[in-house]
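Rotation project, supervised by the postdoc (A.L.). Task for the rotation student: set up a whole-complex structure prediction and record inputs and outputs verbatim in this book. Inputs entered:
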Amino acid sequence: MTTSADPALRTVGLSKSFGGVHAVREVSLSVDAGEVKGVIGPNGAGKTSLVNTISGREKPSRGSVFLEGRDVTGRPPHHLSRAGLTRSYQHSTVFAEASVEENLARAGAFAGRRAVDVDAYIELAGLDAVWDATAGSLPYGQRKMLGLVMTLRTGPSVVLLDEPAAGLESSERPRIDHMVERCAEGGGAVLIVEHDMDLIRRLCPTILVLDSGRVLAEGETGEVLARADVLEAYLGSAEPATEREGSGVGD
Amino acid sequence: MPSQTETVTPVLTTTTPPRRRSAPRPRVPWGELVVVVVLVLLLLLPLPANDLQLVSQLNHVVTVLGAALSVYVMMRLKLLHFGVPAFMAIGAYAVALTGLHLTSNLVVMVLASLVVPAVAAVPFGLITMRLRGTYFALVTFLIGQVVYLLIVATEALGGTDGLPGLPAPTWGDVVLADQVTTMRVGVGVALLAVLLVIAFTAVSGRALDSLRSNEVLAGSLGLRDRPVRLGAFVVSAAVAGLSGFLVVNTLTTAHPSSFSVLSGVDYVAYVVVGGWGSVLGPAIGTALLVLLTSQFASEGTSASALLGGLLILTSLFLQRGLTGTVAHLVATVRRRRSDPRRAGRNADDDER
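Outputs recorded:
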């Protein structure tokens, strides 16, 4: 039964195995409406597998996923999207042969009644200037922005962003910040998987650290990043991340 | 999240000045219009009744157009359907049994050839729905083989002898038997197939194109792919069934050899050569290859080699098919005129 106290997204003991490989192990997390939470971890920690399992791309081996209190474990992506949980992809994901306009029209059409107006995000992402261009012809950064705006077009209450800043020019990254902030201000719950620790520090008051599929640490971002076990998992040394600005954890 | 009525003020200036967005321009379906107009003209204009070769070739084109459209519908999903002869056979035998045992009324025969394959396609569609690429092609090929063998093994369907002596269809008291009238019936039925496919692609075109382009993204955005895939398979079977009706109406016999699995390769070739951006592609591919086959027939055994060579050349140099290549060139020229810097980058997949 759904109550107002239910977090927007909650997982309980979520696990995903591929044969003998345990990609995600007993991960429990929650993200409230309006909260932005980061998920970090070294390569192979299970971050993308976690997003895939929550978003229905992979069926969990064990555990549960709750969306605003409703058990949506193992539901397919289209069902979750229509229920309010949408994700973006690590690699730029658009309908390459269609125009920017048509890409956004498709996102609206497939979202059905949940679709929302995204004019502000379109301008924010700089897509106005390439409105009629074929999505596949856009530079990587703009394609990625388009994918993100399409995700927001579906009117999600929970957004999973898989490395939204990966491959973007440094000048493009502030756009991600503003989009995520606006999304959270509007009541959206945002879970960001990201290697860019500057972005994580700017956007995520709390983070969760994955290592070998397990939750290694969770809590306030600054405190977690200063923990010796987190540094050990990331860098193989216990040197505080604050002393490695510019080449800190995950950079 | 912002609601539909909520206005969010942007806080970041874009590096490129925002350009005023143009209002969505409705796409004129030229390809569809051309095919419909040509078929309507063939239906209405007088034809030279004494030029039997022309009438025969036109009849052949419209007879197999439904089969090519059947392939085209699945090609919109990037799926190669080699099982088209199976659904042509189901439609053909449904018509044969109707004509021999119930009525030769044209409307009833057409409905039988449309509905029976469509219903039969449902279980096959459910089986093939999860398949992609090579596996879909292989399984549909096997469906063709299984249906062919079932027909041959079923005594009620005449086995290897088929069902001969079908009555000509009737329209009221008029018997539609002579060669020109048979061709006109073919044009009418082909027009029905074209309109059915146009209606389906008009309703589901956006979903079809999205599933072909990026089905993972489409699902993440909320698109349920299974109804679209099943719908496409059923419509594909229905238009194949109409083609099956025209085959038996021309031959006055429902015979298994008319629906051999290998003929499915021809129907795929019609679409590959013509293109699959609109129904114009299969129509042009069908007309071209049927007429060329007729011309090459005088070359005897080398006819197949000549056709094969044409297919190889198409695959090497016209990978979008004839209509797709022309549309691509037109779009490239237009873009080059409007913005020379973007022309090269934007010119991909413009056949629509």
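Student's summary: The radius of gyration of chain B is 22 Å.
Supervisor addendum: Residues 30-42+51-260 of chain B form one domain.
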